[in-house]
Amino acid sequence: MIINNPGVIPDVYIVADNILSPIGKTTNENLQSLKQNISAVKHHTDLDITPDPIAAALFEPNSVNIVKNYTKFENLLISSISDVINQLPQGYLGDKTVLIVSSTKGNISLLETEKHTEALNNRMALHTSAQLVTDHFGFVNKPIIISNACISGVMAILTGMRLIQSGQYENAVVAGADVISKFVLSGFQSFQALSSTVCRPFDKERTGLNLGEGAATVVLSSRKQNDTDVKVSSGAISNDANHISGPSRTGEELGFAIKKALLDAGITAHDVDYISTHGTATNYNDEMEANAINFAGLQHVLANSLKGYYGHTLGAAGLIESIIATYAIKDGLIFPSLGYAENGVSKPINICTQLTHMPVKHVLKTASGFGGCNAAMIFSK
After folding, report:
1. How far is CA 373 from CA 119, 197, 241, 317, 376, in A?
2. From 199, 278, 362, 373, the catalytic residue
3. Which one of 43, 127, 150, 373 is the catalytic residue?
4. 136: annotated active-site residue
5. Under DSSP, is residue 282 helix (H, G, I), strand (E, B) or coil?
6. Beta carbons within 10 angstroms of residue 136's beta carbon
7. Active site annotation includes 150
8. Burial (Cβ within 10 Å: 0-12, 13-18, ≥19) of residue 1
9. What are phi and psi of 27, to 5 degrees?
10. Is-contact 272 362, C-beta < 8 A?
11. Sign of the torsion angle spanned by Cα atoms 25, 28, 31, 35
């Protein structure tokens, strides 16, 4: 258990960030798109993935900067990390910095185009991709991989925070990415979890989720760069052990993680100004998450889901949504949940339906995924 104590444990700040998505190559471009209610979710027909049209947030062909000898997944990581490094003064890549990579599927798409051999197994391994990215930038330390279903991005930030608080490193470059392949798509199709239109998290008429591609990076540091840098206050993880692909029916386990994160941040439910939910728009996730929010006494707090803008970007989702959440603190701006019109869960939840300007000091970010995993983090001014 980590207890915040400024006299012993260093505070951790987000000192640089990048979002690379179909609606923007930088965080600022993404924020401008969100202000205009632009969604990356469109109908696509990609015969390499599926013979039928799908509603998803995919990069257009040739829109991703491709560096030779790297896969699309690795190129997304490299492009996103390059942008954050350009935001920092020199000296961040030394022996006091660790690279953490978040992904759920990495290069799994190579199974669809390459002969299955032991060499391919090694090429697909996440540690191979992480080492290639490490070598590309010249990071000194061995990279760390976080792959825990859809909480990977949030868990990667939490891991970086704890490594810095432990004194092992001063900085952590936390990057996440995922691409949509036939393998990924067929998995979600088998669950009948996909919506044929732009998803509607928490809405009465929701019909499932949209998949999305994207990458994002944050640089965590014990050294504050600007007065506006947001603090990573705390985080917690739980597992409900309910079912490999079905979340808890009570939401208590995510609720436990939320309460633990609040406790470690030294705040109460009344101090939280905004919740960035996981909000996939599936029946079971949204119901579980609403239960958890009520269990933690946060049903009055303004909440949204960004899945209507980005789809579910899997290993990048927690990072993309955390970055947007930190800009709610910086800019006092909360984006509406696209598609939400009427409450479709059994417990009350205060969903944001219009662009809202308000002071924000503390944000709760939640995430949940297959295997019963849950994560909650607190970001603060």
Report:
1. 31, 27, 8, 15, 11
2. 278
3. 150
4. no
5. coil
6. 16
7. yes
8. exposed
9. -60, -45
10. yes
11. negative
| Residue 32 CA, distance from chain mean position | 19
Q: What's the token pair of residue 188? A: 């979600």
Q: Give the number of other Cβ atoms within 10 Å of residue 350's Cβ.
A: 16
Q: Which of 199, 312, 362, 373 is catalytic?
A: 312
Only one residue has tokens 């953490």, namely: 100
Give the pLDDT of the chain (381 residues) as one tens digit per residue. 344 455 579 999 999 999 999 999 999 999 999 999 999 999 998 778 888 899 999 999 888 887 888 999 999 999 999 999 999 988 788 899 999 999 999 999 999 999 999 999 999 999 999 999 999 999 999 999 999 999 999 999 999 999 999 999 999 999 999 999 999 999 999 999 999 999 999 999 999 999 999 999 999 999 999 999 999 999 999 999 988 888 999 999 999 999 999 999 999 999 999 999 999 999 999 999 999 999 999 999 999 999 999 999 999 999 999 999 999 999 999 999 999 999 999 999 999 999 999 999 999 999 999 999 999 999 999
